[in-house]
């Protein structure tokens, strides 16, 4: 029995240097939480509603995974897809979707054929502490500039929760 314990401890000691050399493989990252994502989407929808627009708002995390998708009462179901694809374009580029669209006219038609990406105005990065932690897309207002304005209102309203 003592021999088994001794062999087991020796095996663990031999593994310690190996496990330490892989310590860099574990990443610690900041990403958007569900509560903040929900509150941002809600504020964007309310901002558009105040202007008479019924929209959808989708928040994705820094990797493009959907965190929250909200559709206002009278928004078309298609606005959910469009909003998410605007947010994904923002994640891919790191820029507002409208800025990316303007800068990449050379490949814009091709990018619109990438599943899950839509090169339209209305997607905005969500920045916290100088890092992109996600993106939000809004769709349903008459024009992407109006969609983007609603996102910006939401980000401004909750800026204290983003400044950490």
What does the model show?
This protein has 164 residues and is α+β, with helices and mostly antiparallel strands. It has a single domain, classed as Haem-degrading domain (Beta-Lactamase, 2-Layer Sandwich), CATH 3.30.450. The protein is built from 7 helices and 4 strands. The chain has a 4-stranded antiparallel β-sheet with strand order 2-1-4-3. Helix 2 packs across helix 6 (144-157). The radius of gyration is 22 Å and the shape is globular.
By CATH, the architecture is named 2-Layer Sandwich
Assembly context of the chains: single chain
Largest sheet: 4 strands, antiparallel
Counted by DSSP, the helix tally is 7
CATH fold naming? Beta-Lactamase
Low-confidence stretches: 5-10
Strand content: 15-25%
Question: What is the rounded distance between the termini?
Answer: 54 Å
Number of strands: 4
As laid out across the biggest beta sheet, the strand order is 2-1-4-3
Radius of gyration: 22 Å
Structurally, the number of domains stands at: 1
Overall average pLDDT: 89
CATH superfamily: Haem-degrading domain
What shape does the CA trace take?
Answer: globular
CATH top level?
Alpha Beta
Class derived from helix and strand content: alpha+beta
Brief digest:
By secondary structure, the protein is an alpha+beta fold. Helices cover 50% and strands 16% of the residues.
């Amino acid at each position: 029995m003592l021999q088994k314990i001794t062999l087991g401890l020796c095996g663990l000691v031999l593994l310690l240097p190996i496990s330490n050399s892989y310590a860099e493989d574990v990443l610690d990252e900041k990403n958007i939480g569900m509560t903040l994502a929900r509150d941002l989407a809600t504020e964007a929808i309310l901002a558009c509603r105040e202007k008479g627009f019924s929209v959808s708002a989708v928040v994705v995390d820094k990797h493009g995974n959907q965190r929250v998708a909200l559709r206002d009462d009278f928004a078309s179901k298609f606005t959910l897809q469009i909003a998410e694809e605007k947010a994904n374009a923002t994640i891919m580029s790191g820029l507002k979707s409208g800025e990316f669209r303007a800068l990449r006219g050379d490949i814009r038609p091709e990018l619109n054929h990438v599943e899950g990406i839509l090169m339209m105005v209305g997607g905005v990065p969500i920045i916290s502490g100088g890092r992109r932690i996600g993106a939000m897309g809004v769709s349903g207002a008459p024009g992407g500039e109006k969609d983007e304005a609603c996102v910006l209102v939401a980000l401004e309203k909750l800026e204290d929760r983003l400044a950490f």
